[in-house]
Amino acid sequence: QAPFAMKTPQLGFKPVPFGFDDKVVVPEGYRAEVLYAWGDPVGIAGNMPAFRSDASNTAAEQAVQAGMHHDGMHYYPLPLGATGSKHGLLAINHEYTDDGLLHVDGMKTWNADKVKKAQAAVGVSIIEVEATGKGWQVVRPSKYARRIHANTPIAIGGPARGHELMKTDADPQGVEILGTFQNCASGPTPWGTYLTCEENFDGVFINDSGNLTALEKRYGISNKDAGYKWAWEDFRFDLQLNPNEANRFGWVVEIDPFDPQAKPVKRTALGRIKHEGATTTIAANGHVVVYMGDDQRFEYIYKFVSKNKYDPKNRKANLQLLEEGTLYVARFDADGSGSWLPLVAGQNGLSADKGFATQGDVVIKARMAADIAGATKMDRPEWIAVNPRKAGEVYCTLTNNSERGKDGKPGADAANPRNNNLFGHIIRWQENAGDATSTGFKWDIFALAGRPDAAKQEHVGNIKGDAFGSPDGLKFDQQGVLWVQTDVSTSTVNMKEYQGMGNNQMVAVVPETGEFRRFLTGPHGCEITGLAFTPDNKTMFVNIQHPGEPDSERNDPAKPTAISSWPDGANAGRPRAATVVVRKLDGGVIGS
Ligand code: FEO
Ligand code: CA
Ligand code: CA
Ligand code: CA
């Protein structure tokens, strides 16, 4: 572990004010530089097309360039097993596309090539990065450079492999899926792999038959997609023609960034939900524990405990650890205690007559299993962070829930204490005996986000220090500082209850003090999401997602550029999501 992990960290930077400008702002003494923006070549030898600022790159070119809408991210020192901070790999999610920006004329016309380009612009980038005399640079070409997108072959692992509900005409055995998309947050494993998480997968499927199954309804499938129009040109996404295809998404996918030939695997033992992220820790007894949120209003928090134990000397065996184990879902009781409820076929009412004959049934229908188990409906679980300085202490952002307390919806409860929860909160639990594999825990609310000057008490919150709302990204750095990134939606950012709070932002907090300090604000229309640190904590990588996102017509190619021209400037074309490098000018530890 890092040498920092022993002592209480201190925040030494001067906070930045709310941000209203079309730029990234960091504290005095820090510098932020763009490293890898949508359309930049990933670095595959002989195939490094430059970004064309009028968005005229083809689908084939997009498939070897940075995707859109950077999200979860991790830094891996090179080579495998090293701990250095000057040379490594970044694995970066590309969550979804803004087709208004992705094509020369946006969505004004629609065709199969545009669908192919959109499918090539999502998924994951693996890039090689190096600190040089001129700052951090992407190494091109690189033998590690790789793009994984919506048509990359991915194996099915775990209990859903070969299940009837996973079989399609194209994959009659139910063993291989084309692609991953809606890759939101992510997490590393101690054996050097990357877990990318499929969140709002329902948004690309259509079932127009008028007969939605209970399973489809529970996962949000309907007769409309979220505006991506894939099903119009690629019938794989039309559920009348391919009824099981949607079951093949909503998983955690394990990628080995060190081996560009390694086929990624959907780790179905971890359940099928709208996976926000996957945060791994090794319990004292050696089992692997993965914490996961299902980001939708009134959904649940899950954890997976591996059957087998981690062996630091046996990577080959570790690569199979997520194949088998126990999936749990959380119940938060009003007395401050909580339980992890096992989701196991044959237990807790998960019987064959209810549709759970096998563990494959349970994981494919994980939300329905969790309903039966009696889990607590949360205010949109987003990222989860494990405190490196306190065994078994875990934090989860609950970003917001405007429907809490509305007619016909659940009202406030102990763990989700505010109706009309527009600002969100951060919940914290302590696993019993500090053991991450425990089935019981104690919990409290670490922070109710808000603003002290709010008109309504329910929006004031209780945070010390700098105001924020809609916490989403959440990660501990190497020293034990907890970083919080906000995702105030474009329909409310700096408007309504958020009026005067500016663009999305990132704050830092030391758990022992509970004082939040604003470190970074982003450009117009962006979300701040995705965060990584080098082992020496002297370089921070942070993602700026969807700069220039318009408040409504995301398909209007004219409008977004008027909102933001970050990072290339007014004459350069369109705004681009990007990975930014933040360093201290004196070379010191970030946050100090
Ligand atoms: Fe993709 Fe829940 O954020
Ligand atoms: Ca998120
Ligand atoms: Ca969010
Ligand atoms: Ca997002």
TrEMBL record:
Residues 544-575 are annotated as: Disordered. Transmembrane segments: none annotated. Gene3D superfamilies: TolB, C-terminal domain. Residues 548-557 have a biased composition (Basic and acidic residues). It comes from the Bacteria. InterPro entries: 6-blade_b-propeller_TolB-like, PhoX, TAT_signal. This is PhoX family protein. It comes from Vogesella amnigena.
